[in-house]
């Protein structure tokens, strides 16, 4: 009887903590939409009394632009897929108390590795695709290991290192594409990968492909890794309090490097599937892929929960794919960025409030 009560109490507490964790992200989404409606009213010339009409327009157009017909639905799927990968990659780093700004660079290295492996002729399609995914994960993981090692062994901040490595990765990719025989002369891109290396698409002419299932599987696997294994426990312990973790016998340096390797590997897989499923070659980079930075927002909104990143990526992917529809209907596409910015601001505020709250508690305990 006592065991049953204890189990019920545990479930109730888990449910309460889950709802508490979800409350602020939902609140931030509601506030962002509330504010965005005023800009819709301004763009469409509505009066203040037509607020709910403007709200209906905003929701209707976002839905129409994201899921209004099969074509735009597949566009949304192709937007969501890389966001899941980069969101989960950032979530792993966050859980270890790290800020991996280098996800974009790791994504690029995954793309480059996939383009290399994808041009190998004569391979079985299953083996070829597995090799592409493996190559992407290795390239991204190694690129993530460098700032992880420097953080763990030298003490240099991972934010500075990963920012610099983003631009190094972009310059490295451009060197291979523009200055070596790997690139196609006169095209500023690599050769198209072999058909055996291409992931099956849902419909022809669309970038949506089966890598969405891989992204979801990776998110679920990382959730299991972080919450159900010793490895995940140690990574989370280091993120919560590295000094206490070290006192408890956990190797902080090892877990710092490991978290960055896992984070980079996931980003690399995202880049590899982008080549195998969507682009089929790598063009020279004029700027860093936005997916790496959008992944930070995805992870923040999901409270660094890998499974939560699926829903968070769906929201951001839908907003991104609906931008054109909004613009065609007289609403600036910047509304999308406004909504995203307000969500990030509110979620970041929650982290800041928690930080100072915990600091105050520690100060109170020390004074006692």
TrEMBL record:
It comes from the Bacteria. GO terms for molecular function: transmembrane transporter activity. Pfam families: BPD_transp_2. The chain crosses the membrane at residues 21-42, 72-92, 98-119, 126-146, 166-186, 207-227, 257-279, 335-353. InterPro entries: ABC_transp_permease. PANTHER family: ABC TRANSPORTER, PERMEASE PROTEIN, GUANOSINE ABC TRANSPORTER PERMEASE PROTEIN NUPP. Keywords: Cell membrane, Membrane, Transmembrane, Transmembrane helix. This is ABC transporter permease. It is a multi-pass membrane protein. It comes from Clostridium tagluense. The keyword Manganese does not apply. It is found in: Cell membrane. One of its GO terms (cellular component) is plasma membrane.
């Amino acid at each position: 009887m006592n065991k049953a009560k204890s189990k019920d109490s545990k479930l109730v507490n888990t449910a309460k903590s889950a709802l508490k964790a979800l409350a602020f992200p939902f609140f931030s989404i509601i506030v962002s939409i509330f504010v965005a409606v005023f800009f819709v009213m301004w763009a469409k010339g509505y009066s203040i009394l037509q607020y709910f009409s403007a709200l209906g327009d905003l929701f209707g157009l976002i839905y129409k632009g994201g899921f209004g017909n099969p074509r735009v639905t597949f566009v949304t799927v192709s937007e969501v897929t890389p966001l899941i990968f980069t969101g989960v990659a950032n979530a792993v780093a966050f859980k270890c108390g790290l800020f991996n700004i280098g996800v974009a660079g790791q994504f690029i290295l995954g793309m480059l590795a996939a383009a290399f492996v994808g041009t190998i002729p004569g391979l079985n399609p299953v083996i070829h695709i597995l090799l592409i995914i493996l190559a992407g994960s290795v390239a991204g993981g190694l690129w993530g290991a460098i700032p992880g090692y420097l953080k763990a062994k030298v003490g240099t901040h991972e934010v500075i290192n990963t920012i610099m490595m983003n631009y190094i990765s972009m310059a490295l990719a451009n060197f291979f594409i523009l200055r070596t025989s790997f690139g196609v002369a006169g095209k500023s891109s690599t050769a198209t990968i072999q058909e055996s290396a291409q992931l099956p698409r849902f419909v022809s002419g669309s970038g949506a492909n089966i890598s969405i299932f891989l992204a979801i599987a990776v998110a679920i696997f990382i959730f299991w890794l972080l919450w159900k294994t010793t490895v995940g426990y140690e990574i989370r312990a280091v993120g919560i309090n590295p000094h206490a973790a070290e006192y408890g016998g956990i190797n902080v340096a090892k877990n710092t490097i490991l978290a960055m390797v896992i984070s980079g590997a996931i980003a690399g897989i995202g880049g590899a599937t982008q080549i195998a499923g969507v682009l089929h070659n790598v063009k020279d980079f004029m700027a860093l892929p936005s997916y790496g930075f959008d992944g930070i927002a995805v992870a923040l909104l999901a409270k660094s929960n890998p499974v939560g990143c699926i829903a968070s990526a769906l929201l951001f992917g839908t907003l991104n794919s609906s931008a054109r529809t909004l613009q065609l209907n007289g609403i600036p596409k910047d509304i999308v960025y406004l909504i995203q910015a307000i969500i990030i601001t509110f979620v970041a505020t929650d982290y800041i409030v928690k930080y100072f709250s915990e600091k105050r508690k520690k100060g109170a305990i020390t004074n006692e």
